[in-house]
Amino acid sequence: MLLRKSYSPLKILVVCFFSCLNFYNLFGQSRETTDLFSYNYIFEDRYIKISDRIKKELGTSKNYLRNSYYNIHKDSRWDSSYYPRSVLAIYKSDSHSKIIILEDDGNHFDNGKDDGIYSNYLLTDLNEFKTDDYEINVCCLDSLGINYSILTYPLNYIPKPPIIISPTYNQDVTTTTPSIALSIDQNVDGCQIILLEKTPVIGQKLEGIIWKKNYANLNNSILIDTIPIPLANHKIYYIIFWSYVNTKMINGSWQKSAYSMEWTIFTIDTTKKTASSLELFQNYPNPFNNETIISWSQQNGGHITIAIYDLIGREVKKIVDDKISAGNHFSMWNGTNDAGQTVASGVYFLYAKTPKTKNVIKMIFLR
Q: Could you tell me which residues come within 8 angstroms of residue 214 by beta carbon, excluding any fewer than 6 positions away?
């Protein structure tokens, strides 16, 4: 079991994305949709690259998760007296055909606006669902139903899962407003952070969301942010990290199509103190050739100076020279000096000092 003590294991919720082209009515007479977005979010689909931690939690060696979702209440062709009883995803090609049954999310097609059914299918590689013809079959007990002909978008690239730098897995965080730091694939178009106070469960709507934020047009591979709301002491929290790339559809629109996912769990415990009033942690990544995260922890608030020096002791870059509150903190260095010029490859020293404490670590910059 991954989570400590008696906490429920994380089971990964996957909420999905949409693509539809043709639509058939209840009695088998088909009509072509004139607007790709006319039936937005009736059916959603995602390919997700999962992290090693999620693979371990799911007990699998497979690298990808294919998630499909159908929402009856956003489908105007059905009414409350005539709900479907089964939904099949049908993948056809010249060499094989595969059928996946979508499972009820537990609400049994009730009147909840987010009611739907899911399929979470683990894949070894992406070619397992390579298809020439893809349909969703929605059917009732009397066999009357709807067939959706689904547009399969090209998957040119699936991003690598984010690497969580802080808070680390099962970390005891000593501040109620912790910072978040992660390294993301440089090719992503955007990402999302979701903070929860309840354990996510596979195939169900996320419960206990207390903060989330979307990030787009990212200019670097390192993301640093601070949770803007105070968290409760002695309480467990969960963070899910998404990143995605966009794909150009045949109608010229851009859609989110390929995802990666990672998660972490941490506890707020302000009673725990660091062994020293100042801890300077090893930068990440190290060695680095683009950007690196500098992190430190102050047991007490106060003035701190952090600067980078070369091998002969010359100051290269001032990172911090200010009064900082107690807690964990992050900054970033992109390999430039105070004049904005890129420094030479080599060994550099990160030096931090407060009125009572000083610390130093070695960093390697490779151009």
A: 190, 191, 192
